[in-house]
Design a protein that fits this description.
mainly alpha, about 0% strand, 12 helices, disordered C terminus
């Protein structure tokens, strides 16, 4: 329970700072009725996808329940897209995804959050069961990655204004992929492991602020609310998929002995290589956004 309680004061401080520091929106979309039908159609396929991924390995991928869940994803997902194309005031303006900088940023961002939370999920297994670190010390050592992310993020945000988003986002995910591969090779050395984990956080920190800024800059100003909502949804989806898919890969290779050093190391290696491949894919998608700066999208200037 304290894990949730500790966020209460942080949330209050964030609300107060946001009220006084965030400027009032100047470019607002016209008021329209909320798309309740779109929301009702949207929730089932998302829920079904997460359930299918989470329980597929446990129940069997050919089990009727898992097949049925994927069926819900396909049918309801198609129904949602069809409804949003025809709705007078859609919950999600699909035309946003025709913009390569926006769609590439959203896709690569989702994958980056998958990697971030996949690492946070699998590293404690290695620290506690393979390197025999206590639970409390494992938590402290795991903080190396978010500390690296937090130190790199503001620097990357400032650099993005000068060099654009693509070099930082591509470079950040390439660094992340490289550190994941190195972790597989050298996780027997705890000191080196922590350095590599910190550099992995630096890579994610170099990616996240420029990518988020580029996503918002790729959307028309009057659609900034929708763009922000999509961005936050991908963060949540990436978190869930990171836990589910990384857990799946880890379980497949660690087998029935996720507390023994040998199986845990094998499961960690497989999960880290999987996340490295995802990082490379995220870098490739980030490279599609082009070399323009954060506020230099010619289609937005034309509008």
């Amino acid at each position: 329970p304290l894990i949730f309680l500790v966020n209460v004061p942080a949330g209050i401080v964030g609300m107060v700072l946001g009220w006084f520091l965030i400027p009032r929106s100047r470019h607002l979309a016209e008021r329209t009725p909320f798309d309740w039908v779109g929301l009702a159609i949207f929730v089932p396929p998302v829920t079904a996808l997460l359930l299918a991924i989470s329980y597929g390995n446990r129940l069997g991928w050919s089990s009727p329940l898992i097949i049925g869940l994927f069926g819900v994803v396909v049918v309801m997902g198609a129904a949602f897209l069809r409804w949003e194309r025809r709705a007078a005031a859609p919950m999600l303006d699909l035309s946003l995804f025709r913009r390569v900088p926006f769609s590439a940023g959203i896709a690569s961002g989702l994958l980056s959050y998958l990697v971030l939370f996949g690492v946070l999920f699998v590293v404690p297994y290695l620290l506690e069961n393979a390197l025999h670190v206590s639970v409390g010390l494992a938590g402290l050592e795991l903080m190396v990655m978010p500390v690296g992310l937090g130190l790199a993020a503001p620097v990357a945000g400032r650099l993005a204004d000068r060099v654009g988003a693509r070099p930082l986002t591509v470079g950040g995910m390439v660094l992340t992929a490289a550190m994941l591969v190195v972790l597989v090779v050298s996780h027997g050395n705890e000191a080196a492991f922590l350095v590599e984990l910190g550099l992995l956080g630096v890579g994610l920190g170099a990616f996240t602020p420029p990518n988020n800024a580029a996503i918002m800059g790729a959307a028309p100003r009057w659609q900034s609310g929708v763009a922000s909502g999509v961005l936050n949804m991908t963060r949540s989806m990436g978190t869930s998929l990171g836990l589910a898919l990384t857990g799946l890969v880890f379980e497949l290779f660690a087998g029935l002995h996720p507390t023994q050093a040998g199986p845990v190391s094998m499961g960690f290696n497989a999960a880290a290589l999987f996340l490295a491949a995802v990082s490379v894919l995220a870098a490739a998608l980030a490279a599609l956004r082009g070399s323009t700066g954060l506020a230099e999208d010619p289609t937005l200037t034309a509008e």
